[in-house]
Design brief:
By secondary structure, this protein is α+β, with helices and mostly antiparallel strands. The protein has 2 domains: about 150 residues, Yope Regulator, Chain: A, CATH 3.30.1460; about 110 residues, no CATH class. The protein is about 45% helix and about 20% strand. The protein has 11 helices and 9 strands. The strands form 2 sheets. The chain has a 7-stranded antiparallel sheet. This is HNH endonuclease. GO terms for molecular function: endonuclease activity. Keywords: Endonuclease, Hydrolase, Nuclease.
């Protein structure tokens, strides 16, 4: 159990570029994994993950003892963050998950967004799950859904995947636009939602890496910002549908042959004119 905890923590930290705490316990003969972003004073939230009867993955999320700050930030989330939160829920449901998210004891999706959050409880159930008869398979499904779970909560928060040391360095050496660039380009939530909604075919030429390369190209494509991040002001309201598109490596490179980049429509026209000639 301890080895898997270390591996899960390392995987989460690599994915989010922030420190995590992961521990395990035995409950009724089943191993429960408890994880949270590292913090002093129990001010964030915990995620408890376990596999029940070898076929059901159960994830439970709750604020930590002193998680009032997190609750307040969720309650005051901007409209674009609430939209992203709902989109992420839809994505997880499309992956087969059943989701319950209660705020102050009521389903948050059946009411207006509450202005005061005294508590929240989220439960995600995935059944059936792939066969997990060995440690490698257990690690794969636990890691994948732990990341989904943290992203689901992070979608409402201002937490980014930049650790403090990196951010200090950027603030010292870089410009505000460089900070925004890293925040938007490395945000796994925005990337996942873009690909969930728009798929893995290039928006310009239609290429799908899986069709060309087989298994090694499965679910691979690059994501391009239609609005250059250098032009995004600090109060810019980011919209996944408007601001991100999937592009193959060639079209992505060609888009950036000009500053500001070529639009999807311009690149399509360039290809169309080239074919005509």
């Amino acid at each position: 159990m301890e080895d898997l905890c270390i591996k899960l923590r390392s995987d989460l930290e690599h994915y989010f570029s922030m420190p995590f705490e992961v521990s395990s316990s035995l409950v009724d003969g089943e191993v429960h994994y408890k994880c949270s972003p590292s913090n002093e004073g129990s001010m964030f939230f915990d995620i408890n993950v376990y596999i029940h009867n070898h076929i059901r993955l159960i994830i439970e999320m709750n604020p930590q003892k002193h998680g009032g700050y997190i609750l307040n930030e969720m309650a005051s989330a901007r409209e674009d963050k609430i939209k992203r939160f709902v989109m992420y829920k839809e994505m997880l449901e499309d992956k087969g998950a059943k989701i319950k998210f209660y705020v102050n004891g009521s389903d948050v999706f059946d009411r207006e967004w509450p202005s005061i959050w005294r508590s929240f409880m989220c439960k995600i159930v995935l059944v059936p799950i792939p066969d997990v008869d060995n440690a490698e398979k257990r690690f794969a499904i636990l890691s994948e859904w732990m990341k989904y779970s943290f992203d689901f909560i992070f979608s409402l928060l201002t937490i980014t995947d930049i650790n403090e040391e990196s951010l200090v360095s950027i603030k010292t050496e870089g410009s505000p636009s460089e900070i925004r660039s890293i925040r938007y380009e490395r945000n796994p939530i925005n990337r996942q939602l873009c690909l969930y909604r728009k798929g893995y075919c290039c928006e310009v030429c239609g290429m799908n890496f899986y069709d060309v390369y087989g298994d090694i190209g499965y679910h691979y494509i690059e994501v391009h910002h239609t609005m250059p991040v250098s032009l995004m002001k600090p109060d810019y309201v980011f919209d996944v549908d408007r601001d991100l598109v999937p592009l193959c490596s060639n079209c992505h490179a060609m888009a950036h042959r000009r500053n500001p980049p070529y639009s999807v429509e311009e690149l399509k026209e360039i290809i169309k004119n080239k074919i005509k000639k």
